[in-house]
Amino acid sequence: MNTWALSRHIFSGIFFLALVLPGTAFGQRAAPTPDSNFVDIKQVDPTIVIDLRYASPNNVTRRPLYPPGMPALVRSSVAQRLVFAQKYLRERGHGLKIWDAYRPKAAQEQLWEATRNHSFVADPKGEIGSMHTRGAAVDATLVDRKGKDVPMPTEFDNFTPAAMLYYQGSNPAVRSNLKLLQKAMARAGFYGLRTEWWHFCAADWTTYPPVPEIQLRAEAPQQNR
Q: pTM to 2 decimals?
């Protein structure tokens, strides 16, 4: 079963739309070999802005779900995809801001209890769980050259039809910004989620097993917000 069919089967209507453009970037060659190493996005590319929403009360639960000093972690090969996307965006006067990356299972459980909405949050007790817990997904938005937010369809965790992958509004700036973000992530080998314009996962997400918890070092630095 291919990734498209598998995703539709798993999520019962919450399906992933392939954004990868044929003949471009990661689409030209085999994806990076999956590995078990997690890396800090900020250390791999310091130009990527980090704003982990679940590390602060600025999220749908109104409380921090992550421990102090939580870095934005992903699999190392996923990080390389982000580096590619960031380079593409910086050449066009923009950049990435990461709202979420690796998510511990305990945080996923709290998020599920606070929302219980299958359209936007994966049930941690389900067969697949969250792609964030695999280290294969990020929640991302677009910033300008100075790292400032630009107009996008909605804020983070806006669980309404306005957050759909395909923008239905009339603001040309929002439409252009979202298209640029999606194009950059597609060229880097990411898929988008139908119900959340900010969610992107590596096309080979099924090759990464869930990791319930990662032991953080005490000296892990706080990320820029």
A: 0.81
